[in-house]
Structures are given as C-alpha cells and as structure tokens.
Design brief:
265 residues, 27% strand, binds adenosine-5'-triphosphate
C-alpha cells in the first residue's frame, strides 16, 4: 500500500479469536484525518473486532498504515501516543479515581510535565470535573463512559477509535460527546466511531462504513449510504428514509413482514 499522510489505510485485514476467524481479507476505504467515520452494521457483524484490530488491542494480519507508520510495528508507547481507544465493555474492578486513570493514560503515551493539571483539563473538557476524585467502580454507567472517553482523548491522539461511546449517555451528554469527537477530527485526528444509532451517524459523521458479516458492504457520505436498500440488505429492515439536512428519519414500512427473530450475522 502507498503511504497516505492524511489517512489510515486498512488492507487485507484478517482477525481471529483463537481458531475462529472473524474478519477475512477486509479492505476499507481510506479513513481520513479531519473526518469522523461512523462504522455501522448489525450486531455481531465484526465492528468491535475491526476497531480492536485498528487500535492494536487484538493481533491481526494485513496492512495497517497511518501515513508512513506501520501500525503493526509500533511499540506500546508509540501506540499509546498515537492511538486513543475506548472499548465497548469498560474494565471493572479498579479502585483508581477518574483523575488517576486519565493520568495513567497520559503516562502510557510518554507524556511528561504536570500531568495532573493536564488530566484536570481533560475532565473539565468533558464536564466531569466533579467526578475527578471518585473511584471508577463507584460511578454510574454513563459517568464511567465519560471517564473512559476522557482516557481515550487525553493525549489528543492522531487516531481515535471509539466503540459505542454514547450507548449509556443521556441526550445532553450524547451531543456534548459528539461535539467533542467532531472537534478532535477537525483538529486533525482520524476518528472511527462505532454507532448503532444511525440518526447520530447521519448528524455527526462525515463518512459511513457499513459492515455486513464482517465484509465491507458500502461506504460514503451518510446520506448516500443510509438508504432503504441498505437497511433492507444489511439489517433486513423495511423502511423509508428521509434525510433533511443532517437529520435522518427512518420510518418502518407499514405492512412489513412481522418481525421474525433474525439470526445474527
Ligand atoms: N473474545 C471473543 N472470542 C471469540 N469470539 C468473539 C470474541 N469477541 C467477539 N467474538 C465474535 O466475533 C463476532 C463479531 O463480534 P463483534 O463484537 O466484533 O461484533 P459487533 O459488530 O461489534 O457486534 P455488536 O454490535 O453486537 O457489539 C461475533 O460472532 C462474536 O461472537
């Protein structure tokens, strides 16, 4: 693959859990700096697995390049400095405070200086300064998600990979987080965000990548990709779709066949 200074290039990606192959020979369109790319698709279709491979938290084969950097060759410290990753399932069983967890995230990337002040700045950006000294295990699900996002963005990484970062958040926090995610992209990060909420993807994403059975189904601007035929083909869901500016309305078809349980892809 030719280096592209402005994009993350993913080619011929293979990921397995033990002997179970999940992703085979997946090539994605360039994931550009400065843009928010939404990764969408049904349950079990491989979105989190792809994100983990990009974040280098699971091993993979294939090409993963960001500019001239081969992501598969990065040391743990280089990886931590370049990549911010927020997992779908948040770690449990830690007595760390929110602030300590952000300081650790800064240290992992080799940051020096007054890390406490930096960490306070990060939690303030997310509006969770009052949680700074709370042990993580005593936070609510949504609060914990906000702290996890603080850890991911703390180093202002060049690549930000977020797995359903708003799934536990209320309406106000959802939009606060999406504004922050968009600002990271506009500051030059390549952002990939797994979302189930297609309206959110339409509102905030510049590009959309659709996975079906761990394969690339389609990609492009949300209004070009989120269409009735995609919903039928990928989700088995009959609906009409209206894009009004950045707002998306999905109206299920009347008389659509009664929902039979659908097997996971
Ligand atoms: N640690 C694991 N070990 C074995 N199989 C796994 C593991 N994690 C995920 N899988 C399997 O890999 C497939 C893809 O899972 P993945 O979590 O990537 O899907 P997803 O698209 O993110 O799903 P969802 O939208 O439900 O979160 C599923 O069949 C799942 O059962």
């Amino acid at each position: 693959m030719r280096p592209n200074e402005d994009a993350l290039l993913v080619g011929g990606l293979n990921v397995a859990y033990g002997r179970r192959r999940i992703v085979q020979d997946l090539t994605l369109p360039p994931i550009r700096r400065g843009q928010v790319t939404a990764l969408i698709g049904p349950n079990g279709t491989g979105k989190s697995t792809v994100l983990k491979a990009l974040a280098r938290v699971v091993p993979s084969d294939g090409d993963l390049h960001f500019g001239s950097a081969d992501l598969r060759q990065l040391s743990p410290r280089q990886r931590a400095a370049m990549i911010g990753y927020m997992p779908q399932v948040l770690p449990q069983g830690t007595e760390l405070t929110a602030l300590e967890s952000v300081i650790i995230a800064l240290k992992a990337g080799g940051e020096a200086g007054n890390l406490e002040r930096r960490a306070v700045g990060v939690v303030e950006r997310l509006g969770i300064a009052e949680l700074a000294l709370a042990p993580l295990d005593r936070l609510s699900g949504g609060e914990r998600q906000l702290v996890s996002l603080a850890q991911a963005i703390a180093r202002d990484p060049a690549m930000l990979f977020l797995d359903e970062p708003t799934s536990a958040l209320d309406l106000g926090h959802v939009h606060q987080v999406m504004r922050l995610v968009q600002a990271s992209a506009r500051n030059g990060a390549a952002v990939v965000i797994v979302l189930h909420d297609l309206a959110l993807a339409a509102q905030w994403a510049d590009r959309t990548i659709v996975l079906k059975s761990a394969r690339l189904h389609s990609a492009g601007a949300p209004r070009d990709v989120i269409t009735p035929s995609m919903l039928a083909d990928v989700y088995g869901f009959a609906a009409s779709v209206e894009h009004l500016g950045k707002n998306l309305f999905i109206v299920p078809d009347r008389g659509a066949p009664a929902d039979a349980p659908r097997s996971l892809s």
